[in-house]
Design a protein that fits this description.
Layout: H1 17-25, E1 48-54, H2 65-77, E2 82-87, H3 98-103, E3 109-112, H4 136-145, H5 148-156, E4 161-168, E5 175-177, E6 191-193, H6 196-204, E7 208-210, H7 214-223, E8 228-229, H8 234-240, E9 248-251, E10 260-266, H9 267-271, H10 275-309, E11 314-317, H11 320-340, H12 342-367
Parallel strand pairs: 1-2, 1-3, 6-7, 6-8, 9-11
Antiparallel strand pairs: 3-10, 4-10, 5-8, 5-9
Helix pairs in contact: 2-10, 4-5, 6-11, 8-10, 11-12
Bound molecules: calcium ion.
Length: 371
């Protein structure tokens, strides 16, 4: 486990079950009182006690450590004035109800990824990842500088939620298979755990995408309930033991080329924070972003070495023609989704417009270096 070794982990001991119950039933906990938006008054004495719920299991490497580190840094930078208590998925609310909990004000903050809310906001998926789409560099260039973040927040506006980028998974792995994938026909009838737009692409390619939670994946693959699964990358895949349930480990993760993580904030509570605390949250989120991506790059490289040298895993590339056909099917899938939902279409067009300018630069740099 990585910890922020420069600063001691401060876990306030005074918060107990009463606070948790208040959060669930009254939607409030702590000493917050309304603060006028836009005032220059800084309430230096007031302590804001907030709660953050995440979509990750407790002890999920990096993804769950990141929000804990974020909260710790906010606490230190604000001299304890913004005190965020972090709960893993299921501890306070179920993982997939994080967005609703923040939207309804039952908690102030959430940490997850936007594709989890695809059922509610299909266009949110662009702020998570797009099959064959941009990697972390391009995604974050779009979000921070190319109008992406504004668009993202427009989508969440009706839900009383603000989104901030807070990290990126990097390029994921293609997944674990018990048979070799040599042509696109090998995907026909394949029962694979693969969520989101990638799942829709597999469906269009003749496969059978299946959704299941982290706790079910290993057993389902080991018992043959599913034929294949994608998960994250070497670090998380090794931790889940997927190398013991499947023979072939394919790359690259065409379906998740750079999954962005999000910090959700209840809009009314955000507007009630003094300006200096808002700035601390923004800067801590940016710092957590950098930590998350670099930690995953480091730990994935270590875990890949272990998988390929000690675990005898066969690490294989998807054949070029399979990749090309998946790319074509992806375009058809995205266009099909855009026809069904005007908001999806609007964000898709904005994403493509940004990518059209970004991609030539990417080609002259990372691609030209063979990266
Ligand atoms: Ca994944």
């Amino acid at each position: 486990m990585l910890k922020n070794t420069n600063t001691p982990l401060i876990i306030p001991a005074a918060r107990g079950s009463l606070c948790l119950l208040l959060a669930l039933f009254l939607g409030a906990c702590g000493t917050d009182a309304p603060v006028e938006s836009g005032t220059a008054v800084i309430d230096t004495g007031k302590i804001h006690r907030w709660k953050m719920v995440t979509t990750w299991p407790a002890n999920f490497p990096v993804f769950q450590e990141a929000p804990e580190m974020f909260a710790e840094n906010v606490r230190i930078m604000s001299n304890g004035r913004l005190d965020i208590n972090v709960f893993a998925g299921g501890e306070l609310v179920p993982a997939l109800q994080v967005f609703d909990a923040v939207s309804q004000g039952a908690v102030e903050m959430g940490h997850g990824s936007a594709y989890y809310w695809a059922g509610k906001v299909p266009a949110a998926q662009f702020f998570s990842t797009v099959p064959f789409g941009m990697e972390q560099k391009g995604v974050e260039a779009w979000l921070y500088h190319g109008g992406g973040l504004e668009l993202w927040n427009e989508l969440y506006e009706p839900f009383n939620v603000i989104a901030l980028p807070i990290g990126n998974s990097g390029v994921q792995m293609g997944g674990w298979f018990n048979k070799k994938i040599e042509t696109i026909a090998d995907l026909k009838g394949l029962r694979m755990r693969i969520p989101g737009l990638g799942g829709k692409v597999l469906d269009r390619a003749g496969g059978n995408p299946i959704l299941m939670s982290a706790g079910e994946v290993y057993t389902a693959l080991e018992r043959g309930t599913i034929d294949a699964t994608e998960w994250v990358g070497p670090l998380h895949d090794l931790r889940l033991g997927l190398n013991r349930a499947a023979r072939y480990y394919y790359y690259p993760g065409w379906h998740e080329p750079g999954t962005e993580l999000e910090l959700l904030v209840n809009k009314a509570r955000w507007e009630g924070l003094p300006a200096d605390l808002q700035q601390i949250v923004k800067q801590a989120a940016a710092a957590t972003s950098a930590w998350t991506f670099s930690a995953l790059e480091y730990l994935n490289s270590q875990a890949l070495k272990e998988l390929s040298t000690k675990k005898n895993v066969q690490v294989l590339p998807f054949p070029a023609e399979v990749m090309e056909e998946l790319r074509v099917i992806t375009r058809q899938t995205l266009e099909g989704e855009a026809e069904k939902d005007p908001e999806f279409k609007r964000v898709y067009e904005a994403y493509l417009a940004f990518q059209e300018t970004y991609q030539p630069w990417h080609r002259l740099t990372s691609e030209a270096l063979g990266k």
